[in-house]
Amino acid sequence: MATTSDVVVASSPQDAEAVEAVEQHHAELAGRLGALTTALVGAAESAEGERFEQAHRSAVRFCTEELLPHAAAEERLLYPAARSHETRLVDGMLAEHKSIKGLVDELSSAEQPVRAAAAIRALRVLFEVHLMKENELLLPVLAQDPAVSLSTVLEGMHELLGGAEHTESAPSDHGHGHGSCGCGESDSGTPELDVRAVPHAIRHATVFGAFDAIGTGGSLVLVAPHDPQPLLRQLNERAAGRIDVEYLERGPQAWRLRLTRT
User: Fold this and answer.
1) Domain range for residue 192?
2) Are 193 and 223 in contact (CB under 8 A)?
3) What is the sign of the dihedral through the CA atoms of 203, 105, 77 and 132?
4) What is the pLDDT of residues 98-124, one digit of tens each?
């Protein structure tokens, strides 16, 4: 699960904001990869050739256009700044990047659905563990070092901070759940995203990432610990009003909503 530490002591308010921005972007990436994983695995199990091809293209596009550029930006900016403090950690993170790249290559070249599903499942697990190390081990070290201005290092780097325009990555007829929290399919076959166990600090970003992976006409069942009105307002703004919300359950233990991109 892509987590974030409860408290990061930073050397400046600007660096604290930079850490939060990176963690939020990590949550979005994990959310999108989880959604695309659910889509691709479901397509592979369905034995529907066209559905698999769409899901496969979407997953490969996300990995090559967003996930790998994110990793490359880390290698250019974050890791050199951290090497003097955490040499072995940085070496380990670089090794994980090689493994991530290898899994993306496997995913890209996979022609059989079962191989593609296996590759993206492995990629999702490795990526979430990798993000946890960055959030909980690497970023705090950089944020606490007064000799490193994290906000300056990361200024304008949308690959690390987010903020770039998102293209729709999922097939237009399937919505998908998120992998860093309980994720699966509802009884109706619509993928389900349960964010009740996701830390509040990254909960909205996780949903943003998952919904970004939904194409026009696709749906996602969101399970929340309360009525997510602030989140819905943000989603509506992010989707330029192209979202339909249907309440399936209204507490007290859980709120279940079907979110559809229109």
Assistant:
1) 183-261
2) yes
3) positive
4) 999 999 999 999 999 999 999 999 999
